[in-house]
Amino acid sequence: MILAAHYLPVKIETAEHPTVVWLHGFLGSAEEWLELAVQLPNFAHLLVDLPGHGGSAEQSVADFAVVDASLRDTLKHYAISSYALIGYSLGGRVAMYHAVQDPAGLRALLVEGGNPGLKTQDERTARIEHDTRWAERFRSQPLREVLSGWYRQPVFAELNEAERECLVELRSAQMGEPLAAMLEATSLGKQPLLTPSLKTLAIPFVYLCGERDAKFQQLAVESDLPARIIADAGHNAHRANPNEFVTQVLDFLTKHL
Asked: Looking at the domain assignment, is residue 77 inside a domain?
């Protein structure tokens, strides 16, 4: 299954670089990466809409394996054989899952605020129940109402009311059913624990965290992930401080590719 995506060719021809492939978070879309991607003109870019979102809203998946297969089909469709993968939150989890399968063309992995997995079955069961409740809300309640509650979860505690309302407005044009299906299919409770495999990756890997994102900084420390901190930002660091985010991404790619 080929996912909807936006391809941006390289603007400045220098040495040949891998294509940078961008995966958004839950409720996001490929478009949110555009202003960042254009600041990296030495690279070609593929901005992907994950299932249930944007141009892929009508595509549904059963689990992480199907999402990964769809990503592979999409890369093949665009004839991308060498690439760096950047993912935020849900997109970061998809990116990590993809990376530990050891795909031949992957040259680097950059993850922003993605959870590498839960350690116990009790934690996984509780998370599946949590995500199922949210999925039921996405299916049955007005989307603006659901989003207002979604962005009041602890992981978004750094948002002020104006920022929260801006996100609700930005995301409210989507459809609840596809979002619910994707949330269930890719629940953190259904994701394998990826930490052991991440530690043995043979490619460059960086884990980006917002300065105010205490939860994911702690996850990085506990999981011994190679973290970089984005100043003046919370969980959604690329939105809060896009200039610093691009600077960190460019520095990493330049050093390792």
From this structure: yes
CATH number at residue 48: 3.40.50.1820
How many structural domains compose the chain?
1
pTM (whole model) above 0.90: yes
Query: What is the DSSP annotation of the chain?
Result: -PPPEEEE--SS--S--PEEEEE--TT--GGGGHHHHTT-TTS-EEEEPPTTSGGGTT---SSHHHHHHHHHHHHHHTT--SEEEEEETHHHHHHHHHHTT--TTEEEEEEES-----SSHHHHHHHHHHHHHHHHHHHHS-HHHHHHHHTTSGGGTT--HHHHHHHHHHHTTS-HHHHHHHHHHT-GGGS---HHHHTT-SS-EEEEEETT-HHHHHHHHHTT--EEEETT--SSHHHH-HHHHHHHHHHHHHHH-
pLDDT per residue as tens digits for the range 140-183: 999 999 999 999 999 999 899 999 999 999 999 999 999 999 99
Per residue in 120-149, pLDDT (tens digit) is 999 999 999 999 999 999 999 999 999 999
